[in-house]
């Protein structure tokens, strides 16, 4: 089944069950200061759950563009390294606002997966909330368990704790237990059998969660206690790309038709082949993922910039440029050339990508050009540093200069050094970073209020992302 049909089948199925199909909200919600990007299907409907606004229908269905690159949900580090976490992904959802509840949500989920999508029931597992011994003293979700028991053998129903199976929007507000549906698409040889929780939650790339059914039945009050909601709601979220992986009988989201046209284009442009070399494969996955995130953000009006959400977008694009530069040996702009493929593939479901295509290409190309220039200059300077280094370690102070004055990414410095058998004085680098943070704080305190926000924003985020990424990536490169 082609991805277009996977999406439309989902929406039509729920339309038949009296849901109204609504378009995806933009990824940047202008009226929600608590969230940088929409990171789940429910975010645009928050006000309906809280009872502050009324939907046009108590049943809705949609495919929401989600971005998990900041805050509580940040999957950026996984992207490219695993085969099922993306920065931007679509979350298919069906919603009941005080209308149907667990019985229908579970029965319809099963009907869709088995009768409509024809998934073999033997590869599915479900999870149920086991209850909690903490202050909430919640009971296990017997209602969900009994409903699942009618449709799936009991040894495929696994108990999950609060972390995995109790969903909360924040410190206050609607919340409740959830049931997740997982697939196990390992071949018999890949199965080292294993029972219960291990099987579903182990980090095997072919054992993945595809759908989360959230049963909102409580309200968390300001004093931390739970009260039973008068109106109960359903919030479901299914990863579209993961569903396509299952339905197209492949082992990775990147082998579905959501990604293959982009990957083919990268292969052509960079004269590489996907599936032959671990590092090249990671780079190709990173680029094919990130171009989607950046293109859709620009289409939604969030351009790369130096602060806030714009800065996150700039960093995602730079991450892609760096992987292309380092592993695909691509020293001139090329990511912008992938936009036309993306627009062809996604333009029908998301017209904004078609109508904004020219702008998206121009913005990406300009960003690529300027960052590649930075990389070039930085490499020359780094070479000079390496030449003058005595011993094995490059001082944190010098690496910091390169990072701070020339914008050269610290993780790239660390990578190049490790390739040359040298080490980076990370401690020294961190000390310089801290000093600079204090300097800019002090400077911003003397300035106007707007300026304070700008400065703090940029510095905080820079630190959080680039440095953390440097550490994680390095350990991973050693593994590859
Ligand atoms: P995981 O445990 O795999 O990280 P999750 O529990 O964080 O997923 P939910 O918040 O329950 O995910 O989101 C609902 C669905 O969205 C998941 O069941 C999954 O199919 C999909 N999903 C979540 N995160 C991603 C991602 N980064 N990329 C692609 N799909 C995702
Ligand atoms: Mg997650
Ligand atoms: Mg999960
Ligand atoms: Mg989940």
Can you describe what's shown?
It is a single chain. With 480 residues, this protein is an alpha+beta fold. It folds into three domains: 3-247, 2-Layer Sandwich (BirA Bifunctional Protein, domain 2); 259-375, no CATH class; 389-480, no CATH class. 48% of the residues lie in helices and 17% in strands. The chain has 17 helices and 13 strands. It has helices spanning 3-16, 46-49, 102-116, 142-149, 162-165, 196-201, 240-247, 260-270, 278-299, 308-327, 339-346, 351-355, 357-388, 396-406, 410-419, 426-445, 449-479, and strands at 20-21, 59-67, 69-70, 73-74, 88-97, 124-129, 157-160, 166-168, 173-184, 207-220, 226-239, 393-394, 423-424. The strands form three sheets. Strands 1, 2, 5, 6, 7, 8, 9, 10 and 11 form a nine-stranded mixed beta sheet that branches. A two-stranded antiparallel sheet has the order 3-4. Strands 12-13 form a two-stranded parallel sheet. Helix 13 (357-388) packs antiparallel against helix 14 (396-406) and helix 14 packs across helix 16 (426-445). The radius of gyration is 24 Å and the shape is globular. The two termini are 33 Å apart. It binds adenosine-5'-triphosphate and magnesium ion (3 copies). The site of one magnesium ion has 3 residues, from strand 10.
